[in-house]
């Protein structure tokens, strides 16, 4: 795929993540969500040997463009894949053991504003939502789901307060829903009819829940964290940046389990400051957690 420019994504908590990773020249690091290459570029500039992974080929092309321009002489390689298979991908590339691994979860700004994959409620793109373009699209899944199942998905993944009525309406109108914007408008209309006010766009939670469902994000994260931990050397660090309470809960539980078994040391979580949120609103819900192997 030809990409003429790098990503529009601005990495969240960049300096903090790099500080926690304590980059040592010549040591191996993995960026399991390389995205536009923002975190990866800083690792390579400090002499780290990097394996960058992304499930999305289009993001990998953007990372390549960025890394070629900022670190042409660095030691890095990029591979496409789901981080649920991190252990296998890393072992195949000889990245075992490694000094540090970073997961910067979720989507890049490019997914919302540029890549027409139906992630945004303003998107006149088909109901797809697949990050890695594997498996069933959102439209295919919606055509088979029952209202009860969909209600549970909206509640479980995003605590959507109008889950029941939204699920019923989506199932009733699913044949005619063509684009993400159609779905966004439907949810907006339900909120208006129910006279419920929200700070964010009314479809924010629905879109989050559907994306988590389509991509099996919870399962991927659990497997990714297990794989990452097995790849780290003693003294190595795992840094995870999450963007919603569901994924942060999984990270916290995983870290607590390891620390409880006296295999790891947890650092206090870090949040973006007001200044960062002002220039990068997508970072507003970011939370960084770090675990060191002992
Ligand atoms: C927030 S962005 C990362 C941004 C990156 N740190 C940077 O500096 O540009 C998250 C990236 O993770 C990728 N991603 C999401 N789920 C994934 C998965 N299961 N496996 C691998 N990559 C994934 C997305 O395609 C996206 O590019």
Q: Give the averaged pLDDT, no decimals.
A: 96
* Beta-strand share of residues: 5-15%
Q: Please tally the β strands and state the result.
A: 7
User: In oligomeric terms, what are we looking at?
Assistant: single chain
Shape annotation:
globular
Structural class: alpha/beta
Radius of gyration: 19 Å
- The name of the CATH topology of the largest domain is Rossmann fold
The CATH first-level class of the largest domain comes to Alpha Beta
- The strand line-up of the biggest sheet is 3-2-1-4-5-7-6
What's this model, at a glance?
With 294 residues, the chain is an alpha/beta fold.
Feature tags:
294 residues, 46% helix, 7-stranded mixed beta sheet, binds S-adenosylmethionine, alpha/beta
If you had to describe this structure to a student in words, what would you say it looks like?
The chain is α/β, with parallel strands linked by helices and about 290 residues long. The protein folds into two domains: about 15-110 and about 215-294, Vaccinia Virus protein VP39 (Rossmann fold), CATH 3.40.50; about 120-215, DNA polymerase, domain 1. The chain is about 45% helix and about 15% strand. It has helices at about 15-20, 40-45, 55-70, 85-90, 110-115, 140-145, 145-160, 165-175, 180-195, 205-215, 215-230, 245-260, 275-280; strands spanning about 30, 50-55, 75-80, 100-105, 230-240, 265, 285-294. A seven-stranded mixed sheet has the order 3-2-1-4-5-7-6, sandwiched between helices.
